[in-house]
Amino acid sequence: DMDLIKRASHMIRKSSKTFVLTGAGISTESGIPDFRSPNTGLWENIDPMEALSTTVLYNYPKKFYSQGYKILLDMKDAKPNRAHYVLAEMERMGFISGIITQNIDNLHQKSGSQYVLEVHGNTREGSCINCGKKVDLDVLTEKVNNNEIPPRCDNCHGILRPDVIMFGDMLPEDFNIALEEVENGDLLIVIGSSLVVAPVNYLPQMAKKLIIINSDSTAMDFCADLIINESASAALEAILYELKVE
Ligand code: NAD
């Protein structure tokens, strides 16, 4: 709908500090399944809320490394899609100040975005729960492949874990920074998130102005100033075009 696209680009032009909040839906076009699209059936045998929980990570490490960990590794080779590239370009052009992402797939960084707050962690690193030493995630993978489950720290023999926020974990410092950025900003654009996961879904409720871009409805549609029900790439390409010609 061209009218919605025009209104969105107008709101972006008027705003002096715009942040973007992304969820799994921005990466489905890169081949990474999300958790809550209707009828995808991709998680038929695995409940991600269980497989990626602290309970399974700490109490059933064999189960964690045969299920949840595989979901994480599957993201490592994905490539950014047009939606990620448009956001990187919008940052270069000065239309957005940064990205807050719930994703752990590294695709915003791969597409060239500079300021990215990762509120659910990342799949690049792991760390020791005892001494805090950080290691490349490949170090964990190698140990797991050598049947060292759970993988242990070379420093202190503590347990190594991925730096991904599991269900049951506290959020990292990036989330506190995100709260401040949204509080000080004047526009938030949410892209590809069902917005059912707290506390990240506080962010759209705090935003002064809110645009939601999502294939279908979200839990926070009631507080949006503008809703665009389209794919992330189509909507963002149209908005970028409009920003360039306006
Ligand atoms: P979600 O799965 O709950 O919601 C995704 C939303 O995106 C759905 O409402 C869906 O309709 C919409 N969507 C799907 N494809 C789209 C497209 N091409 N364009 C626009 N909208 C589209 O995702 P969430 O809200 O991010 O919550 C899932 C949690 O699981 C997150 O916290 C995240 O950390 C994690 N997760 C991450 C990844 C990833 O890193 N790529 C993938 C799956 C899950």
Automatic annotation (TrEMBL):
Catalyzed reaction equations: N(6)-acetyl-L-lysyl-[protein] + NAD(+) + H2O = 2''-O-acetyl-ADP-D-ribose + nicotinamide + L-lysyl-[protein]
Main EC class the enzyme belongs to: transferase
Protein localization: Cytoplasm
Binding site for NAD(+): A24, T28, F35, R36, Q102, I104, D105, H120, S193, S194, N214, A232
EC number(s) recorded for this UniProt protein: 2.3.1.286
Cofactor note: Binds 1 zinc ion per subunit.
Keywords: Cytoplasm, Metal-binding, NAD, Transferase, Zinc
Ranges where the Deacetylase sirtuin-type domain occurs: 1-246
Names of the cofactor(s): Zn(2+)
GO MF annotation terms: histone deacetylase activity, NAD-dependent; NAD+ binding; zinc ion binding
Transmembrane regions: none
UniProt name for this protein: NAD-dependent protein deacetylase
Encoding gene per record: cobB
